[in-house]
């Protein structure tokens, strides 16, 4: 069916049915969520430390499962004339607040952790591993500027060629590059092992700690107080390594946390 019957006669204009009270309420909730999203983006860009402190409360207000991309795509279709108001409201409402009734055939949406680390179920994820992003509560920064060559999660180990869980991320950098403290804290251990090579660990506030491995040399000393960005070591390839890089881990107590959120 074409948009025009001929070049002279204009098509009959569709008239939208007036919005119901329920639809108006959905639109209001979508608008509030959109305003919150804009505020979160602004705070994230301008005041990252504040964002870290209040992230959990903001996520609670907005809903952690909210698909804002789908929501604003629906609104965009309405403004471009590709969809009616009623259809747009339905799409946006579902994107922001979920399906009105459970649908058995619907596949679960991927979480941010699954996108970064692969899809793991409880049955094959190590007990001490946390994929979800954690609120640190202090300022932090990447220990070096390098490309992530191996992420957090299961992988084929480059030396043993077996499927093993990788408890940190590998950052590629030239040999001798400076490795900086991820955040303020106290140097806990300076050591050497056949697997990690030369390594150093730093304790941070809130029970968090970081590990820096395969170093060519470690310049920090155990017991030393460091600030974010202070020099700790140099990139190397000691221990089980196939080339110069930094193996970086983030812990909270006995738990391993995915570092990709904080270094990428």
From TrEMBL:
Residues 1-22 are annotated as: Disordered. The chain crosses the membrane at residues 27-47. CDD domains: M23_peptidase (cd12797). This is M23ase beta-sheet core domain-containing protein. GO terms for molecular function: metalloendopeptidase activity. Residues 165-259 form the M23ase beta-sheet core domain. SUPFAM superfamilies: Duplicated hybrid motif. Keywords: Membrane, Transmembrane, Transmembrane helix. Signal peptide: none annotated.
